[in-house]
Amino acid sequence: MYFRVSVLIAVILVFPACSSFQKMKDKLQGRNQIVGEGAEDIENMTSEDRKDSDSGSISGLSTIFFDLDSAVLSSESKAALEANVKWLNSHPEVVRMELEGHCDSLGSEAYNIGLGQRRAERVKRYLKALNIPEEKLEIISYGEEKPLSYTDNAKNRRVNFVPIY
Question: What's this model's pTM, rounded to 2 decimal places?
């Protein structure tokens, strides 16, 4: 009897801690840490400050797509990046451009975070070669966390442009 009561008390005491831990884990789930100069500014922005390009709602700003398991820019991607540079140069109100690396759900979570990072870094290097200042470009990798499609993996292999005003 004493053993059952002890177990019951332990469960009652541990359960709220587990519940609290789970809430914290749920809150942080899917959230990548933004680091570097200006990180706090990015994290504290409201939705009105950020204009995601996932929906294609920003005319003249294109999402860059990649082949399976690749961070190589195609000739079509390079042309789209050159057009994005023209858009960026014609919008001086944009203080930074966030480059979001994305992947499909193939591969492990850790691998996809790395692949999304490599894709965003490749885009950043190309933009720097087109005279966009490095300090204006921020990188974040979401890996497979934010798919555009659950049926067409090719739509998820991308780098999105998110202007920060």
Answer: 0.68
